[in-house]
Amino acid sequence: MYSQISNSGSQLSKVTQSEFNAQLIQLWLGHNKSKHTRRVYSQDIKEFLQFVGDLPLNQVTYLETQEFRESLASRKLAPRTINRKIHALRSLLTFGCEKVRMLPTNVGVVLGSEPVKNDLAQRILSEEQVFKMFALEENQRNALILRTLYYTGLRVSEICSLTWKDLQPRSEYEGQVTVFGKGGKTRVVLVSEKVWRSLLELRGEAGKDDPVFVSNKGGHLDSSQVFRIVRAAGNRAGIENVSPHWLRHSHASHSMDRGAPLHVVQASLGHSNPATTGRYLHARPGDGSGRYLG
């Protein structure tokens, strides 16, 4: 079918255009991306295709990508939102050109990112705030979700995909969880005694292939449900706009505050680059030159 698709594109039917785009996008989304990322990126690419009138992706030029970039800026979207959409488009076009060779040219290379203020420190909760969220959550499952997010530092997509076979005892008191994380990487994360005991109590008669955190319909929780659980817990504690990732940030910052080595935190969080983990040291410095001034 693809041999019929040329850069001129004058003879293409809309069905063929749609099939070409759909197949490329499906291949790209299936390439080591989490369920949450696939959903968000799918919406971002759908927005781009609507902007270019569902043009086949092998006919998109530098001009269309730049015009799309300018249209995002004109809508006064947050820089992080613009950068995510641009990253998704750039990733798709790079994959299509360099990985599967369905695109003749990588027209995404010219797409730049918006400068973003580093507000990581604002998204790190205090220990008092975290424990207040725990204390005010009356639902047993939801309380354990909050505690698991904080004490393991797992991503929301990782929490949602857990099954009981991913959890293994480590000692008489502690356990560990095997996580298939971002970028298709597998890591093992220690589960502390207090969380491990609560997880075992939650399990009941569940089988090894059953989800650890069950939705009201009996299947895996969706990431949007976990977002709502965390947001509601934050609101009860008087904290606005809390997301699951804030608990991950807090896990990293608090553990290093208490002396955890950077490489241990890096391994627990699944960061490929130690510089990513090192951001938490800069976000919450333990010392500063101003203390030494008279």
UniProtKB/TrEMBL annotation:
Residues 19-97 form the Core-binding (CB) domain. GO terms for biological process: DNA integration; DNA recombination. It comes from the Bacteria. Residues 271-294 are annotated as: Disordered. SUPFAM superfamilies: DNA breaking-rejoining enzymes. PROSITE patterns: CB, TYR_RECOMBINASE. GO terms for molecular function: DNA binding. Residues 120-293 form the Tyr recombinase domain. Belongs to the 'phage' integrase family. This is Integrase. It comes from Oscillatoriales cyanobacterium SpSt-402.
